[in-house]
């Protein structure tokens, strides 16, 4: 009896010690995000450090992966082995495919209880919403802005274009030619590249969309024909063609106006040679204020065993403090409406950046979105820089996507 009592007491003490040890252990969450740029890395190190200081029972392990196939290859491998990341920082193109594969968890209940749910810009929230459920919340927006040489417009007595007609007038007036060769572009537009979203800006600005409410592709329509015909009537007279993977001629001082990723304009805006000479605005439109805007979001992965703790990190990363810190460190537009005043105080051009996010539309959130990107790029090259008929090319694009879907 005495031996049995001793054994029982010893077992109780051991269990107590194990429980105490368990209580002292940290919950580890893996965060795999797309991108390896230094400014982003510095922000996430700050964010993780501050979060862990407030949550001493949680440890975040950061893994940064290159943009493109590298990110998706790694995710596929991890999910295939049943060890997918707890948290994932990825873009719009990932949403439909990953949700359909069950890789992203719906976070509706967390979102409904989140203090920032009514503060996040609707255009940003839409990017992570799929089939009526919230899966991702945006932390990084990349709007395409209309960049222009303020000094050249002033010298020519022209206002900043806000309509297509004004854009065409200013572009022709500012184009410089040596015979038939354009030596200085009034408005430059890419002819090749990985994702030619510049066409989307004109389609959106004419009231068009590439996807209907049921997530079906809509490649045809008068608004798209009109956008293409406007560009085919203008670009041969004013454009120096380039690849979107190359440095934009505007940044090289070879163009008066362009559409450009906000981040890609940073170097030029910081160049003393262009001080006071460069401005940015919402792109000119044909009745619908709009532009293209990319977005990276935070998702909770399928294999996450601690979703409560994972969302607590998302809450912190998207908090007012972290969002404003991100704008300072990475120069990314804020995603929360309540921070507009502080954001405007950082830079005189932040109002235009915010407006572009507010009116921004991203890539289609559909399983056919990667096919769309290829088809749209071929459309740009065949119609804008070839001889294809706009309506026929759009119909062919529709049929191609439907075939690929089937």
Secondary structure class reads: alpha/beta
* Run of helices and strands: HEHEHEHHHEEEHHEEHHEHEEHHHHEHH
Share of residues in helices: 40-55%
Backbone shape: globular
How far is it from the N-terminal to the C-terminal residue, by CA?
Answer: 75 Å
Mean pLDDT: 92
**From the coordinates shown, what is the CATH architecture of the largest domain?**
3-Layer(aba) Sandwich
Backbone CA Rg? 25 Å
**CATH level 3 topology of the largest domain:** D-Maltodextrin-Binding Protein, domain 2
- The top-level CATH class of the largest domain is Alpha Beta
Unreliable spans are 8-22
Number of domains: 2
Quote the beta fraction: 15-25%
Question: Count of helices?
Answer: 17
Would you identify the CATH H-level superfamily of the largest domain? Periplasmic binding protein-like II
How would a crystallographer describe the biggest sheet? 8 strands, mixed
Q: How many extended strands?
A: 12
Keywords:
single chain, 406 residues, alpha/beta, D-Maltodextrin-Binding Protein, domain 2, 2 domains, eight-stranded mixed β-sheet, two-stranded antiparallel ribbon, 12 strands, 46% helix, globular
If you had to describe this structure to a student in words, what would you say it looks like?
The protein has two domains: 30-141 and 295-361, Periplasmic binding protein-like II (D-Maltodextrin-Binding Protein, domain 2, 3-Layer(aba) Sandwich), CATH 3.40.190.10; 143-293 and 364-405, Periplasmic binding protein-like II (D-Maltodextrin-Binding Protein, domain 2, 3-Layer(aba) Sandwich). The protein is 46% helix and 17% strand. It is built from 17 helices and twelve strands. Strands 1, 2, 3, 6, 9, 10, 11 and 12 form an eight-stranded mixed sheet that branches. It has a two-stranded antiparallel ribbon with strand order 4-5. A two-stranded antiparallel ribbon has the order 7-8.
